[in-house]
Amino acid sequence: MFATGIENSIPTIDHGKTRRDEMAECGHYERWREDFDCVQEIGINYLRYGPPLHRTFLAPNRFDWEFSDLTFADLKRRGITPIVDLCHFGVPDWIGNFQNPDFPRLFAHYCGEFAERFPWVQLYTPMNEMFICAVFSAKYGWWNEQKKDDKSFVTALKHIVKANVMGMIEILKRRHDAIFIQSESSEYFHADSPGAIGRAEVLNQMRFLSLDLNYGRRVDSGMYQYLLDHGFTREEYEWFLEHRLKQHCILGNDYYRTNEHRVFEDGHTVAAGETFGYSEITRQYYERYQLPVMHTETNLVEGPHGDEAVKWLWKEWANVLRLRNVGIPTVGFTWYSLTDQVDWDTALRERNGNVNPLGLFDLDRKIRNVGRAYKQLIADWRNVLPAQSVCLVVPIKKLSEHDEHDAAGRDLNERALTDG
């Protein structure tokens, strides 16, 4: 599955006073038809895409689907399969932030309403980058609740992952063959010195928390103590073990040069750059979860030579092929995102208006060098990989087949969920 994405990030900064809306700042609301043209120009059939949550989910039981109706109908007409991104780093003002214990229930209702309205959609990422969302919102103090303590982090993580699981449950009630592609940051922490080994080991356990809970896997003993020490109850932990939907999931993971960290003895960290690389870190995640893998995000700034992003694309693709060649079932690759982004260099926490040249296209919708390279890569490899793959075939239905997804299938699913 060769993919790209149109980012719908909506975190708040300035203690909730300022909303960052990447769709607005990158011109998507006005130029969405051009953006879909760009997707087709590259030859991409899969698009990470979703409604702007804050503009769609207006209040309990109040929704504005106008923009989604237009855009999703056009995606279906074009034959572009969406991987629907339902919550990307922020919530509507009326919900507040990720400390709100009502968020999982409210979000699950939203997921169900979306799946009811767009029954032809099969692929979902309910909550984007759950670990990063909790860290940036409640550990680093950058977004949303802007907290910096362990209890707030654990609370945010608990609510975010529970919302993801509850959202999957509601979608499956309406689409029994839904497939959930996590988009989660793949991290690694390198000890700078012997004195930093202990801290690095803790961080390397913590990086798995969101996916452990999401997949109903028992966390490491040290992390179990950490969760209980910071507000997690035993009953809440058991809930995740009892609601295990791993069999419906693909392990989507993201990798950037900032995903590896150097840990110092005093506990502070700095970016380590590409040290192990995508294939080695993904192998660690695969060994833990034993799920098919999709590379769901990567990019690099187009630098002064104009070929920096092209070289990074080649390197990441070589890593993907390496995983496949050693027998790890790898089913997709994504350059993220379609267009350049605004203020990615400060993780959206500062409103500077800096346009970061990361996209396949610039904000004038002119193709970049990496866009041309990705178009060629897709053309070269699209018909080669299926014939040589020893991996599973992802059971994705063509959009044209949806009309055959009749009520009998839904009834069967409802009985299965009830009985199961």
Automatic annotation (TrEMBL):
Alphabetical list of Pfam families matching this protein: Glyco_hydro_1
InterPro entries registered for this protein in UniProt: GH, Glyco_hydro_1, Glycosyl_Hydrolase_39
Keywords in alphabetical order: Hydrolase
Extent of the signal sequence: none
Alphabetical list of SUPFAM superfamilies matching this protein: (Trans)glycosidases
An example molecular function term from Gene Ontology annotations: hydrolase activity, hydrolyzing O-glycosyl compounds
Biological processes, Gene Ontology terms: carbohydrate metabolic process
Keyword Hydrolase: yes
Protein name from the UniProt record: Glycoside hydrolase family 1 protein
Species this protein is from: Sphingomonas lutea
Classification of source organism: Bacteria, Pseudomonadati, Pseudomonadota, Alphaproteobacteria, Sphingomonadales
